[in-house]
């Protein structure tokens, strides 16, 4: 189903459970055309499940997800096949669409320099740096989908310097290709650097507890100086996530106590 107006992804009151475990509860969010939106939440809050629903990997129990185009989904690992060359890996979605090999290779070749992969087409993934592998994976995702990308912690596997370089590179590509991006991250600073808006999720079952809008021009976010707006956003996010983490830990402790009591009762009965 197509979205309306400027939205490219619209998530409307979705819920998801696995058996008797409720993972997402009444989640609503959206991504506009040529916008970068981040999703932040503590570990286990259902962020990857949310992406699996948006991409169609899993069905919703309740609610509706609508998009205006095919979506590319890049998971945390680059998933490059070690026995295939860079060219073969990146061209794979085009081949699967029925594009002939020569046309697919020419299409890939036309993007290699733009994605920082010039002269790597005949290399194998193990010869690439972590940053180059991520760029190859992102190009493959882009060629599969077009302009709407779901990125699940795409830079978590690289060092801090490479991550900083990839942030700047991603913003350049985002502008050149008019991308719309929904990004999962555990890194608050990454979200503040890249995003137009940030959704903060509660613990399990996850729901949206805040939508934070960042209006600072992106060009000024890499100068090392934090604006008042981003400082306030950072404080709010930390406060929300710390509260969610405490509640999550309290629930874990309560479950442990319940299990311990059951074991003690069982042992007493057996005696």
Q: What descriptors fit this protein?
A:
six-stranded mixed beta sheet, 7 helices, single chain, 271 residues, 9 strands, alpha/beta
Would you mind describing this structure in some detail?
The structure is a single chain. The chain is an alpha/beta fold and 271 residues long. It has 7 helices and 9 strands, in the order E-E-E-H-E-E-H-H-H-E-H-E-H-E-E-H. The chain has helices spanning 47-54, 86-96, 101-112, 130-145, 160-177, 188-194, 228-270, and strands spanning 7-18, 21-32, 36-40, 62-67, 71-74, 148-152, 180-184, 197-201, 208-213. Strand 6 (148-152), helix 5 and strand 7 form a beta-alpha-beta unit. Helix 2 (86-96) packs across helix 3. The model has no long low-confidence stretch (mean pLDDT 85).
Number of strands: 9
- Specify the biggest β-sheet: 6 strands, mixed
Shape field: globular
Q: Can you list the strand order of the major beta sheet?
A: 5-6-7-3-8-9
SSE order, one letter for each helix or strand: EEEHEEHHHEHEHEEH
Helical content stands at: 40-55%
Rg measurement, Å: 21 Å
Strand percentage lies at: 15-25%
Tally of helical segments: 7
Give the structural class.
Answer: alpha/beta
């Amino acid at each position: 189903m197509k979205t309306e107006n400027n939205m490219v992804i619209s998530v409307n009151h979705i819920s998801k459970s696995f058996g008797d475990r409720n993972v997402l509860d009444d989640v609503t969010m959206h991504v506009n055309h040529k916008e970068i939106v981040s999703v932040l939440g503590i570990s286990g809050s259902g962020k990857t499940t949310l992406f699996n629903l948006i991409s169609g990997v899993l069905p919703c129990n309740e609610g509706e997800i609508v998009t205006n185009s095919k979506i590319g989904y890049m998971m945390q690992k680059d998933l490059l096949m070690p026995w295939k060359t860079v060219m073969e890996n990146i061209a794979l979605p085009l081949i699967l669409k029925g594009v002939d090999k020569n046309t697919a290779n020419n299409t890939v070749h036309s993007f290699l320099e733009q994605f920082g992969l010039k002269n790597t087409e005949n290399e194998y993934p193990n010869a690439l740096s972590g940053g180059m592998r991520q760029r190859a994976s992102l190009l493959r995702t882009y060629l599969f989908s077009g302009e709407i990308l779901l990125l699940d912690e795409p830079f978590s596997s690289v060092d801090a310097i490479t991550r900083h370089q990839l942030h700047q590179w991603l913003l350049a590509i985002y502008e050149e290709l008019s991308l719309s991006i929904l990004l999962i991250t555990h890194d608050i600073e990454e979200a503040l650097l890249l995003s137009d808006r940030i959704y903060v999720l509660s613990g399990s079952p996850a729901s949206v507890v805040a939508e934070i809008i960042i209006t600072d021009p992106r060009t000024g976010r890499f100068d090392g100086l934090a604006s008042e707006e981003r400082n306030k956003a950072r404080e709010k996010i930390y406060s929300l996530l710390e509260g969610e983490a405490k509640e999550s830990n309290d629930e874990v402790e309560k479950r442990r106590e319940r299990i311990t009591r059951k074991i003690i009762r069982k042992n007493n009965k057996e005696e």
